[in-house]
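Step 1: inspect the first sequence and its tokens.
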Amino acid sequence: MIFLFDLDGTIVDSAQGIINGLLYAFNKSGDEIPEKGDLKKFIGPPFMDTFTKEFGFSKDKSKYLIELFREYYFEEGQLESEPYEGMKELLEIVSSKYKLAVATSKPEVQAVEILKNHGLDEYFHFIGGATLDNSRIKKHDVIEYVLDNLDVNSRENTFMIGDRYPDIVGASMSGLRSIGVLWGYGTFEELQFHKADYIEESVDGLKDRILSF
């Protein structure tokens, strides 16, 4: 069995750093700054999709905002995160039984740094994420990249775990089963609508679910 974990909203609560980075980008660009509560719902999907589809910006403007966001995030934002309560214990237990990896739409270099900062990188066989040039940002593409690096033979025994719809949709596109989690930034309705195979309310519930396979 192999379990792929999303990062933001699944392993770590990174809302503070991401929201601060977005506020920095909007402030520096001179655009109207959205309410913090509105920004939180955009955590998860690639920023290129959020800026073009949700805010209606052009691709060039979106790239500029992403560059501004990264100015803040590389210096401060990636330090503004904390593992969810019980997550370290979950990873310690399940990594002794199954192969674990990370599949995140966050740039891979940032994901690796965040997990190292929290002492969680040792539990994963591979940490895969997006590229800084946006050539790999969709969750499906990240999942395929991670599967290639893990040399996965049987996808029916591989799960994607995440809190938002790209995790569930990406898993389905790659022929994986999915486990949605409710302590992140998505909702039960979102995960149910996109047909998550399982939905867990707590870290302990996820641990029990994984160990039941």
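Step 2: inspect the second sequence and its tokens, then contrast the two.
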Amino acid sequence: MANAASGMAVHDDCKLRFLDLKTKRTFRFVVFKIEEKLKQVMVEKLGEPAESYDDFAACLPADECRYAVYDYEFLTPENVPKSRIFFVAWSPDTARVRSKMIYASSKDRFKRELDGIQIELQATDPTEMGLDVFKSRAN
């Protein structure tokens, strides 16, 4: 079903990989890319459970927009292990204006397809989605 605002459909694989991350913890992160020619959101990269935050950040191109989900694990002040699923809307200042508009207009509908997102981050440069940001938002 295409998004009325941007005409972007969501590939079934996006929802399946997100469910794998959320329920089975098969992945640490999933990076999604809008294929403009296909008018569809697709899975671009899957991060293995052993991959780190730095591996995740390295997957986001410096001059192109992406969506991503990241399973952030942390310890509470009481030393209880927890995790939060973050949705990251990556829209660097150097990306094409058309691309930023398409990602912005498709975001809400795409996010609704991924049931279980706990925290959303908008980021235009790496400092806006650093580990310190994840940590402060997770608690």
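Step 3: confirm your contrast with the notes below.
The mean pLDDT is 93. The CA atoms of residues 64 and 95 lie 5 Å apart.
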